[in-house]
Amino acid sequence: MLASTCQVFKCGRKAYPDSDKCIFHAEEKNPQDFSKALVSFIDEQKKWAWIDFSRFVFPEEFKDYKLIKDSFNKEISFAFAVFKGTVNFKDSLFGSDVNFYRAKFEREAYFSQARFKKAFFHGTEFYDRAIFYGAKFIKDTNFTKTIFFGDVRSEERRVGKECRSRWSPYH
User: Fold this and answer.
1) What is the pLDDT of residues 25-45, one digit of tens each?
2) Distance between CA atoms of 83 and 20, rounded to whole angstroms?
3) Which end of the chain is more exposed for a tag (fewer CB within 10 A), N or C?
């Protein structure tokens, strides 16, 4: 028999149908249900100094990262979060501390032109491309034990690649 409340670390939210986890922590869920619940969750969090997306599982079909981007003026935790689909944080301004401790990005992660006040990526795993082209890190940033299984793109690497291709005899 499944539990009636989420069994993920101190969550306690109502369990999602056919799961012992809530809508945010369940592996399998309807993306529309997730988006609707996320809007309510973010609205509830407006009274707090920080927003905790820890251990959330963002479904592959979830595309509306604008919902989350509007919250980036607060401290945010994505610790142990799993992003199953492509993540688009392009042009985001993380105006306070952001924590991606041991988060997993299963598809591309776009942080191009993002601005980070203070970022913690310790132990984060990027299984596909991680694009940080033009990203700025204003204060302390930690990528200790971060694993990049796919390509990592930053301004320096991209410029170098463009220069090499321009002078290639095969071009």
Assistant:
1) 999 999 999 999 998 998 888
2) 20
3) N
